[in-house]
Specification:
The protein is mainly beta and about 90 residues long. The protein has no helices and six strands.
Amino acid sequence: MQQFKHVECKNYIHIDVDKGMCALTKKYVPMDGEGSFACPKFVSMPICGNCKNFKNPDNYGMGTCHGLAKVDWAYSTCGAQGCEGYEEGK
């Protein structure tokens, strides 16, 4: 089972490079590291890392997108709200 992080949730509000805020609880949550795993109220945000067309990510989250006409590099954290090839799947 994949463990999602707060930063991958629709309810996450970016504050700065280190933390954000949960729109539901109004509490600060870390972007990465200790305490960064999502709560049971997690709602997947459309980002490349949550798309079934995102393949072969490395340790830094760089992978390839197979959902558009041309296969190309993509970051797992890249927003995919307007992407024509985005398909929820992870």
